[in-house]
Amino acid sequence: MKIRVRDIEELWKDRFAALVAGRGGLDRIVEFYDMMEQPDIKPWLRENLLVITTGYAIRNDKKALLNLIRDLREVNASALAIKTRFFDEFPKEALALADECEIPLFFLNNDVGFIEVVYPVMTAIVEARNQLEMSSRYRIGTYSQMEMNGKLFLDLQSGKITQAEEAEQRVNSLSWPFPPLRMILIQTEQNPRMAAAQEKDMESIYQMMKGAMERAGIWGAGIVRQYQYICIMKDVEEEKADSLCSTMVEKICSMLKYRVAAGVSQQFYDYLELGAVYKDVKDVFRIREKKGLSGNVLWVEKLRYEQIVMHMAQQREVRAFVQEKLAALEIYDREHESHLAETLEMLSACRGSRKTAAERLYLHRNTMSYRLNQIEEVLGCDLSDAGQLEELGFACRVKEYM
């Protein structure tokens, strides 16, 4: 499916640009776009190209403007979109020539930034190659910066964008940061009351995040989703990133009246990796819940060991191993209302030190010895054997995530 100039007119109408001449060329195909500011751009012109410019390089130069329109016709380009703020008076001859050459001429809104103008065009061109109906694309022109960030994040996270060139074009069009990168994921509890509070404050939270990054001198993009607030930022030193996370967590807590926590990803270099990075950083919230961690800012790199254990707990062979090692002890505890599994976990955590384990459990040494004898009897093991204790300790660690 081809995108045509009349589709661009529909995307831009009412806000971004107005068609002022060249209506006879509305069926011209648009396959490319470029922003050009050189006085002589003829060498870069090509067929089916939409040229977007401030017009500064040819301001008040009627001859150069007329030559540009002729050059566009010569190469069978698509259209010209230009801002008029640098012209004392836009030449009427240019309007007449655009009509004659059937080169659609748009006046861009002088108060709208190029990012907002270019994004719907770029997205429409890309999605035209995927056969998306134009009726769906027309909605792109109404997106705010917050919505455009959210759409790009979703396309990257879901794997919809698969080509590096497309990823680069889209992140550049929204002024997202260059690598190396980190992701900050701030997550709230999921409940209907939380959703209602978030819906009300989405724009305010987005603006707060944007302001916090600007004040910290950190280049980043903000994304607001249900129960989640995300920053894709240029990597900075840990102290600076930690301070930004703490600031945003504190402000979001204050705005929503709910507790939130932040996870910080490892450093990454490719936007095509964003989906994997997102899954990676989400793990810290489950680890926080399982381990009862109290911090509000959690770094993936500092919890990597726990993450590995958590992933191992999902493997069928590992789950079978844990069942084999600990099932009898769990059954015994249920039937006798005892705490042998807890005692074994503490002994393992204390690396086999019975004295330390007893102190942490607030047990008399005789009670501790009695429990350990019971464990050995139930499991048929020898807790003084370092190898057996290591296996049982591994089973206890993995069991936390099952």
Automatic annotation (TrEMBL):
Annotated coiled-coil segments of the chain: none
Ranges where the PucR C-terminal helix-turn-helix domain occurs: 340-398
Residues covered by the Purine catabolism PurC-like domain: 17-125
Organism of derivation: Hungatella hathewayi
Stored InterPro entries: CdaR-like_regulators, PucR_C-HTH_dom, PucR_C-HTH_sf, PucR_dom
Protein name, UniProt field: PucR family transcriptional regulator
One Pfam entry name: PucR
